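Supplementary material to the annual report.
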Amino acid sequence: DVEVKMGSKVCMNASCGSTSSVEWKKGWPLRSGALADLCFRCGSAYETSRFCETFHMEQSGWRECYLCNKRLHCGCIASKLVVEFMDYGGVGCSTSKRGENPGVFSRLPMNMQQTNGETTSSGDDKREEFTPHRGFGNLMKQDNNVTTTGYTHESSSSSPAQPSLNMALATLLYSPSFATPVVDGNKLMGAGGGGVASSQSHLFQCSASSILQKPSKSVLGTPPLGLAGSVGLLLKGVGKAICFLGIGLSILIKSFSKNLRKKTLSASDAGRIGRLVLPKACAEAYFPPISQSEGIPLKVQDVRGKEWTFQFRFWPNNNSRMYVLEGVTPCIQSMRLQAVTFSRVDPGGKLIMGARKATYTVDMQGCGFANGASNEDTSSSGVTENLTSINAPSCPSQMLEGLPEHLGSPHGGNGLKKSEINGGDDPSRGKEKKRTRTLGAKNKRLLLHSEESMELRVTWEEAQELLRPSANAKPTVVVIEEHEFEEFEEPPVFGKRTIVVTSRPSGEQERWGSCDDCSKWRRLPVDALLPAKWTCSDNVWDSSRCSCSAPEESLKELENVLRAGKEYKKKRIGVSQTARNEQEPSGLDALASAAVLGDALDESEVATTTRHPRHRVGCSCIVCIQPPSGKGRHKPTCGCTVCSTLERDGTAAVDEENKEGVEPEKNEGEKEGRIDLNSDPYNREDAEAVAVEKREESKKSEGGVSWGVSQGGGVLGETEVGGGEAEKTTSEEQKVTS
DNA sequence: CCGGTGCATGTTCAG
DNA sequence: TGAACATGCACCGGT
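Predicted assembly:
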């Protein structure tokens, strides 16, 4: 079993990854039926039961063998083959149990019968790769009858190869509080099982393989994600993730290998009922097998380590099943609070901002304007009201705990005044909870439209232009439906808007930024990235103009450009546009409303809903503002605000934007009074026209803030922003050619 | 009366 | 045509 090849293999121990070894050894069984390649060192450790001790010492999941007291690692791929979950609680190692289960261990390859070998768990993204192949799972099934703990694999599976999760790994799915999940009416474990409540017999059968092998349009290639900071949920120990992304109302169910499934949340999913219908294939591939309709509780961990418990169950449906996750509302809502997802779409580099109303508003308030305050400080604006309209979270603390940690960003000191938004209050979570219960939709909207919040009125375009990846953010490229997204661990920051001018005959570009104090324009490196608050003193690129007292450079070229832009803007927008802007809400409220929830600004559309009789007229909850599916479904070509908004917001929007090449100006013109998500957030004419206006206003006021509200520094909450090239894009979009 | 639960039904889509 | 899915809705229990 030892190969003496060098250089042609990679040690499949993710903690090692060595490509050279004097000897290559075989490790755990792979899905393909082959055995993992291990370098000599890892292979030796594996063979001698020292794998865990060698590589996983610091990881959780260690247990003690009930029989021999040997320390066992029960969370990794190798150990699951050699760890037995005792009916009466605790675990036993293979050595101790072997005699009881010869059917299992006698079939294990190599020394696995004797090893307590452990393999990688350091990289969850590798886990599935190391998953035993289906045949092995079947083999292990035989053991089911031997060491049954009462968990009987469903024989009437709707799928002949119904996958089952490795219950060894799945033990982590069950919290101690669910020590007695009902499956077939039998307890998985007796009391005192310490949460170890399963039979080893249900090996992770690589059930997803059917999906993997049969890619569909919804099974997409993606690099190992590790969730990449997205708002995700990890099925602990299973190497699967459910990723709630703010992009649209989508749920990405992805494994850590190469498959990814997206499920756009329907109104039902995100509605007050709190039930999320799972695609059957996903449910059977990624979730534990269930035989009873009442299902089992699933512990799911989000990327912040927060655990959620959902009830995974099914309903009989025709002759099949409909799998649902119950109790997802708090989680989804929590994600809403913290998850505004910004992703860059290629080609085009457009930032797609997926946001939900509550989320966005909260984030916006809580970040750039919060002076470090938590963004759960929804304050008097009642931004969490919308949650109430759906479902009060069962675990508000979770909602709150999941909020962004970046609120004290150094970028956050400028811009809108928190006190102007929330009255200077810094309510506790309890307060927020209280408000959540008491404020209604109308209150919220009224408040957001109030004068206090006027400074929040940033247009969609403006908001997009201000978003930048945080300085140290390194994107993880995720491919979703053939479009690459850059996911960032760090939330975006609000940067200062600058202008790139291509004014020289050589075509060389220049970037200009204005001082927040004196409004003088300063020439910057073309790749400069200004913080939200930037003054002459921060001008490290030009020592002669690093003070507000220094004269401004000749702006002839720039001003010509800006003037031209302004004229163009005036032509295009016209008087009606202005009037519209005066009447219609704009800015964050509109943006937030339109982003996901549909254009709630169009009250008439919302008010006429009859889809949810229990919802009152004007209800703007997520259920009511989404176009119905089924009978009342809107046509694909439906141009109503709800449909268009949802399309724009979701990954569907990504497709649309790329496929259709929507002309922003046209759409903007067509949808008066709305934040048009079709519009190009970097509409350069708009940007420049605005720039001219702002510039002139600034000049008039002698020292006013150049860009009005544009300095909102800080960050959005749990946010991803396409940003590795944000500056590039920004420069492109704001480029002005003379 | 209201909200939760479980199932039925209509629609869409893939084979 | 059947499977999958979204959601409508009847029923039931709690308030």
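The first helix of chain A runs from residue 40 to 47.
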